[in-house]
Design goal:
Radius of gyration: 23 Å
Shape: globular
Distance between the termini: 24 Å
Structural class: alpha/beta
Helix content: 25-40%
Largest sheet: 8 strands, mixed
Strand content: 15-25%
């Protein structure tokens, strides 16, 4: 006979969205349990591997309550570089990067609730720090301790409240009664199968980015070979369970968050690496140089916009190149201006006093590379170069394709540097259709599924082909909070 456990609200997944749902359900008075596929040492999901949330604020005065004793110097820099990021700004950039395909009702909730959610998290013990020293951030604040710190604080808070967290427990099936109501989850832990009975279930166990078969099926050829920037546990289990009971798929199932990663990065990342000085594999300085493929040719506008609004689609462009490899190329000006993050000191790459020597060391077609750089240098317009990572500078090229729309300056001052990059997938954009006001999952028949809610990567409809940096964490927290609150209400209304 299978073991059985009971909670009023069961959370499936221990990432940012899942823990915010747990916090909200607990706040609403429900008994809460969490099942997490990863072992305890690797808990936190992809959320443990990121750095910030992208929210709306009307001025620096809105940022001050989120920080612990900010320095006057930092406040001055914030006021100069990023004085505001209003709800209208948040809406416009999401619509711009998704080419107008973001679900307007979901996006309205995301925008309206973003600042309220970070203030709510502040009440739970979280804080933010200035990100002005990060030349590729594109947003003024970062989470104190990054996403790893956020998750560790969330787990500690829930543990203090006595919330049980079942690690190494993989959900395998949603349990449904004769009326179509979700009444629990069947799962597999190290001892065998166990049934978790619940009055409401919140699915927050990630997309299918760590599942090669699903990547090939939905994203297309070559995607089964890419490296996973995130954890290896997000294999689409929650999505498959929900679809099996008739949940409506929604959003862009053929696109994903795919960014430039070090060519020699490991196949996936574990949260425990954050505690042992693990390498940072992101390679996000590309707007300040050029990118070429192994044939020595440019293939993309490296600075169509600031990094925060282009990096999540840049991996797709890299994957399309011969061998799925590209090279970020910089000259001495970029390093002198502090535009290369310290993480590039450990990056896979080479330095040389000549462009020819750099190409030879990297294995790039020398003749084509020299011609590419010469054409690019000639297309750069004269003028001072001091880019602001928080906004485009309009200093673009003329007369070449692809253009470089911003931050265009000749590659002509030795020593030259080149770094090999590949495509790394972080999360998939396709998910489930929900009621934007409650996060209740919708059935293909057009009705809500009683007792079932979702948040995080599993929520479909917000992101299409691209997304603004930090928006996934923000949406996860916002819709996690909404899902947890309404799951608790549904549990109360369900009665005994």
């Amino acid at each position: 006979m299978e073991r059985e456990l009971y909670y009023e609200v069961l959370i499936v997944g221990g990432g940012n969205a899942g823990l915010c749902a747990a916090l909200a359900a607990l706040e609403a008075g429900a008994s809460v349990g969490i099942i997490e596929k990863a072992p305890r040492a690797e808990r936190g999901g992809n959320s443990a591997l990121t750095a910030h949330m992208r929210f709306a604020y009307n001025g620096v005065e809105d940022l001050i309550p989120l920080m612990d004793n900010p320095a006057e110097y930092d406040l001055k820099i914030l006021a100069e570089r990023a004085p505001r990021h209003t709800e209208a700004d948040l809406w416009d950039e999401a619509m711009r990067v998704t080419e107008g395909q973001a679900d307007p009702e979901l996006l309205e909730t995301h925008v309206r609730e973003s600042y309220r959610t970070v203030r709510w998290l502040r009440e739970k013990g979280h804080s933010w720090v200035p990100a002005v020293a990060n030349p590729t951030a594109g947003f003024p604040l970062m989470l104190n301790g990054g996403g790893y710190g956020l998750q560790q604080r969330n787990f500690a808070y829930l543990e203090r409240q006595g919330v049980p967290i079942h690690y190494e427990t993989a959900a395998t099936e949603l349990m449904v009664d004769g009326r179509g109501r979700v009444v629990g989850v069947r799962a597999l832990d190290p001892e065998g199968y166990v049934v978790f009975r619940a009055k409401a279930v919140v699915l927050a166990c990630g997309g299918f980015e760590a599942n090669p078969e699903m990547r090939a099926r939905y994203l297309g050829p070559r995607w089964d070979t890419v490296k996973v920037r995130g954890v290896p546990y997000n294999t689409g289990d929650g999505l498959k369970m929900a679809l099996e009971i008739g949940a409506m798929p929604y959003g862009s199932w053929s696109s994903c968050h795919a960014s430039p990663q070090d060519y020699n990065r490991p196949p996936f990342t574990l949260p425990s690496a954050m505690t042992v000085g693990g390498n940072e594999w992101n390679r996000y300085a590309y707007p300040f140089g050029i990118m070429v493929n192994i044939e020595g040719q440019r293939f993309v506008d490296e600075a169509e916009d600031i990094r925060a609004r282009t990096y999540a689609k840049m991996g797709r462009a890299i994957l399309a190149q011969p061998g799925g490899i590209a090279f970020e190329v910089f000259d001495a000006k970029v390093r002198r201006l502090g535009l290369l993050p310290p993480t590039y000191e450990k990056a896979t790459g080479e330095r040389a006093e000549t462009l020819e020597g750099l190409a030879e060391k990297l294995g790039i077609n020398v003749k084509n590379f020299l011609a590419t750089v010469k054409a690019f240098n000639s297309a750069c317009r004269p003028g001072a170069y001091n880019p602001n990572p928080f906004k485009p500078d309009g200093k673009g090229t003329e007369g070449i394709y692809p253009p470089k729309s911003n931050y265009a300056v000749p590659i002509d001052e030795p020593p030259f540097e080149g770094y090999a990059v590949c495509c790394g997938i972080t999360f998939t954009f396709g998910g489930l259709k929900v009621d934007p006001k409650t996060c209740q999952v919708q059935h293909v028949s057009g009705r809500p599924i009683p007792g079932l809610y979702t948040a995080g990567e599993m929520l479909g409809g917000l992101w299409h082909w691209n997304y603004p940096s930090g928006s996934g964490m923000m949406a996860g927290a916002t819709f996690g909070r909404i899902a947890g609150t309404h799951a608790a209400r549904a549990a109360r209304e369900a009665g005994p």
